[in-house]
Amino acid sequence: MRILIFGPQGAGKGTQSARIAEKFGIVPISTGDIFRWAIRVDSELGSQVKQYVEDGRLVPDELTVHVVRERLEQDDLANGWILDGFPRNEEQAHALDRIMDDQDLQIDAALILSVPQDVSLRRILGRRVCSNCGRNYHIDTPPQVNWTCDTCGGEVIKRTDDFDEAAVRKRLDIYHQQTEPLKAYYEKRGILHTIDGQASQDEVFARIVEAL
Question: Annotated catalytic, 159?
Fold first, then answer.
């Protein structure tokens, strides 16, 4: 099974991706994961990505597409994947179609977690992350002991990109302008499933499983 998951920042994509992957025996991957993978394997593309990441610049579409293609060709994804953060716009969606055609594969579902902007803002500004393993928390659901990760014992901190509300609002605007139009793109293909992301994590997951 090959799945795309969309939604504004704070919609719960990372949490639901991990649960979907576990249930269906597929690999959860995000563009951040893919960039880190490319840098770790020390490929030529990874070296280019590293320069952009270290400079704090956005990785260009063309390079992103090349890295995504390289990652999706790896053997560990043979049983399927759920992809979070790509495509971000229609140009990237066409590029992903070409990647799928070259592999003689298809995307089985595109999930959109729908939440209002005020909910996204509250979730983003309150979220925290383990500085070691990356597990997500929120000020409403903190770790059990003094902001120390329940999984690995690492320090749980606020993400550097979540401090500035104006910057968060800008990211949400970019999503609505560039990524949200993909709803129509995948709806035309009959694979779109819109999920109300305001419910509890368990309720959202149950709706996703029913849709899939």
Answer: yes
